[in-house]
Design goal:
single chain, alpha/beta, five-stranded parallel sheet, globular
Amino acid sequence: MIITIDGPAAAGKGTLASNLSKKYGYAYFDTGMVYRAVGLEMHLQNKDMTDEDSALKIAQNLTFEHMHELAKNPDFRSALGGKNASIVSAYPAVRAALLKMQQDFALHPVFADGTPAKGVVYDGRDTGTVVCPQAEVKFFITASPEVRAERRYKEFLQKGIKTSYEEVLADVKARDERDSNRATAPMKPAADAVIFDTSSLTIQEVTNKACEVIDAKKK
């Protein structure tokens, strides 16, 4: 089974995807990692983020092994990492170069140790509309910018990352603008996606609602 979870930053996609992958024994693919990897490599090579040609070359040569190495860098999950990922993900050529890598995973999903999985949970911005439009279950998870910024701000504080709520809120709104209005594969719910607004829901409540949808589909 293929399950896709799309939506804006800090809406709760990652936690939900992790919960569902554990419950059903499916592999988990955070598609944002491929864009974070390209953005971080651009940063490490001192490339200008507006240099689309350099971003494309990095995307074309990206491997799963190198992506996981880059994921160990502190900036991979930082505010800077998220900002750079959002910038490079807006380039159509970069998205096209990374699309096959994301789609191929659905054909042969595996866990982190390489063992085969019977299904996959995708977490991203366009997994239900572009990456896996054939997915049996699609979710679109959202929340108000203020709620999402507060969540992300607390995450950064816990990780010892110095920032302010105002800076995080501005970044969340800027990423929403880029993700929703990019020329290629803008962030939007799939026509057949189940939409959850998590502004006033706990992650357990969201997980329970998602499981009801999945269990009904599996029957």
